[in-house]
## 1
Amino acid sequence: MEVTCDLMKYAGPLCRTAFSINLIIIICKKYREQRQSSFINADKISCYKCLIMIETTFYGDYGEESSRSLPVEWSNIHDQALERAYTDSILQGTVTPLLKRELHLKIQCKRLSEGKQELEIQEERPPKNYALSEEEILKRNKRLDQNKASAVRSRVRFRQREEELMREVNTLEQTRRTLVRMRDKLKKDISELQTSLLNHVNECKNEHLKCQAELRLRSITFHSNTMQPSCS
């Protein structure tokens, strides 16, 4: 038994049990009933055709004209959760909601066959709005006042901390300016000392050369006097 349809991959997991076959058949019936419905758009037509092919294929073994009967008579079952899953599957264009409902029913069936209680799933309910009592109103107002007071204290602490940080910044800025002035003064003193030392070194060097020149001059004068012949 083969069904040649590209969308069979979406319905494949549903074709593994007789229970799933019945689920597919009832989906196809409902699709057929609501074929002209306004909320079945063009995007759902391919899925509809796929399910009709599945229905036609499986009716050969499980159809109403067959000697076999369906394991479950769906016309006698009113499952609101299944109806919601069916509607969601149409709107979303996927069989995921039906798969989830099928899995839930399989789990329930297994638990009942083992003698266990049904697994109750609490559905999310919208919160109920009811009038507050006088005591609850007083508690709410007190809580709001406490929240406001806490917010005021937080803002005061924030401003105090901000002012403290600003004072610290100003102090550090003054210290920085003082250190910059001290640095500039030290640079100036170092420059003056370097100039004085350089002048002193230059003076010492010139004096030394002067002394050496005088010594050389005296030496040359002495040797020149001794080397001259005496006149008589």
## 2
Amino acid sequence: MVGPDVAVGHVRFPVESLGAAARYAASFAAGPA
């Protein structure tokens, strides 16, 4: 992990959101691919 939170552009995602973001990314990758 990068740190306590991940900065993407001007948006910061707290650690608590990383799990949800990972599931979203996984479902997005598994869907169209």
## 3
Amino acid sequence: MSAANVFAAAPIEGVLAAGADEVSVAVAALFSGHAQAYQSVSARAALFHAQLVSTLNAGASAYAGAEAVNASPLQAVQDGVLGVINAPAEALWGRPLIGNGADGLAGTGASGGDGGILIGNGGAGGSGGGAHPGGGNGGSAGLIGNGGTGGAGGPGAAGGRGGNGGWLYGNGGAGGQGGAPPANYAIGGVGGAGGNAGLWGNGGAGGQGGSQGGGINELGSLVGAGGNGGHGGLLFGDGGAGGNAGTNRQIYTAQAAPDGAAGGHGGNAGLIGNGGAGGNGSFGGTAPDPVGRVGGIGGVGGHGGNGGLLYGEADGALDVTLHRL
């Protein structure tokens, strides 16, 4: 808008008279006067806008500074109190009384740290890589808290196991996904098992098996099996679902197509709860060879987990045993 005002200032403020008579001169002077008045008002409005924006920015900065000042002492007090509480427990048992476990670093296969003995969630396992291709296990909770998620496996390596839920209350962590086949005619990693619940909580789901994909290392490769689901709480809770087998693309070899992998078994419930669903087996690969090769055998679905002893339903397995031609 400022640029438009500057561009239009010269032609509208200096309107030429249409003729030499007095009426034309008076009309031109009138329009020029209005234009000059508009430019003056526009300049004042632009100045007001700039001052308003500056004031708002200053207010936002002051508010953010006040928030930081107020938060810092409270955070410091909290950290100090937890430090005093957790120091003896960490010295004796290597884990805090209160707090979440640390996550494992990606690409290291490091396991997640265990949660606090009284309350806290387990940390997630790090993904596999380098010298430790398998995914790290999720950390387990203490009395109350959820287990950490297992880390994904590196190429051809298994996913990490999910951490166990709290002894009193909490869900088991999900298992990590298995790694893709690392080379042609290789096998994908198995999905990690789900963590178990304690007294009250649901079991963690099993991780999916390593899948083929992206057109890389797919020739004759076998996909990974799904991980088993974790068991539900002893008193109450559902079993975790079994992980699905890895995805088998339609890739064939000169001999035969690769077979599918099995799905993971569902976890069992305790006293009250439903059993976890079994994971799906994968389809076998196709063999569209002009000579007429045999397609791969589909993988078997996982068994559903048992329902609770007092109340609950068992969940059925999903079976995929088709021959793909």
## 4
Amino acid sequence: MRYLAFVFILFICFSCSQSEKERNILFTGVDVDKTMAIKSSPFISKERVRSLDMGPINVEGPDQVYDEKIENKKVIALYLGPGLHKSFAYIPVISCLKRMDLDFHIIAGAEFSAMIASLYAYDLTAEEIDWKLYQMSEEIKNKTIYSKDWSETIVKFVDKEFKNKRIQGATKVLAVAEYDLKKKKNVLTFKGNLKTSLLNNLSLTFSGNNVNSVFGSEDDIVEELKKRADYVIVLDVLGDKLKLNSINDYLYGVYGKLIGHNIKFDTRADLKLKIPVDEFELDTEKIGDVIQVGKEYCKKVESFLTELKDKKEE
């Protein structure tokens, strides 16, 4: 297995070889050691609670509001970035955030992660989600991502879990990231047929106006979420290296560009957690190992958030 470096300057140049199964992306002048990027604390100090009017706002899209204001907490939006099979690492990290009193009020997902976000939005527990996705992961083993066999398995799962469900019908405010071909950017879909939006994110075809969010950037999603929430948390598993078991130069181009953008530009989120799963391929079959990395990363996250919680927000 050989490595091929992708260097991102003004644009992405990549060469192809049908014998290559794994490639690294290298970027100059970028510190890739940090797994956390924070702009402000997600917690409100007790001294500030009385002076702040924090709480849910009217979400324009789904016409969904909350019955009571949350005066001692920020309204948190959680965005699960794309990452195909590496997205399984999100499950333990989300549980970790909840334990630290950072439960989300709005959840958005892109690509494969949109399924995970939807399961959480419909109030399934981490254990239930883990089990459902584990069963599905067993069925997609040894299948090439985005192939006919892989897609049929995914469609079967989506049909079983989300048939006849509406995005706005979830317990929590749910948004599915999609790339709008007319606007040429990622948008958030807050209402409509959930199954349709999920399948748009699990295909690389251009059959309609809204397609897979991997063709756009995280920035547009974060900006939309900031209009609806006090605090935006982004979870990321793409990392800094692109690895694939599948030999598909088109995928290298699409995901390579996405990773390059995420590294070149600083996140606009209030808190971004980059789960260290760089060693795994996007189409890895080692789902259990991916989840274990997420669990181990939780220890670091909890320690970090505990320190923040003990400090007053400036």
